[in-house]
Write a structure and sequence with these properties.
Layout: E1 13-24, E2 32-42, E3 49-52, E4 61-62, H1 69-75, E5 80-83
């Protein structure tokens, strides 16, 4: 599966596999609760990027279940922060 750019109508190409993503309810509060690895896709027409988490994937770590969540979060240093509605 490759995403289609909504603006250009072009099929996006994979820019990076294993892109770190931090999931939070509110990025302003900096209160992350899950860590994921995603594939980062980019449009060749407008450079728009989208992160895709594959079907059947499970979180790398979850604040509510993993005792070592803080250490794993630190290792995700340059991760994108994603707000979930």
């Amino acid at each position: 599966m490759r995403p289609i750019c909504n603006d250009c109508g072009l099929q996006m190409k994979c820019k990076r596999n294993g892109h770190p993503i931090v999931i939070t309810d509110d990025p302003e509060k900096a209160d992350p609760y899950q860590l994921w690895m995603a594939d980062l896709y980019q449009c060749a027409g407008c450079d728009h990027e989208v992160a895709v988490i594959g079907q059947g994937q499970i979180a790398v770590s979850n604040r509510y279940y993993d005792d070592d969540f803080a250490e794993k979060l630190e290792s995700f240093g340059g991760a994108d922060v994603v707000r979930v509605f």
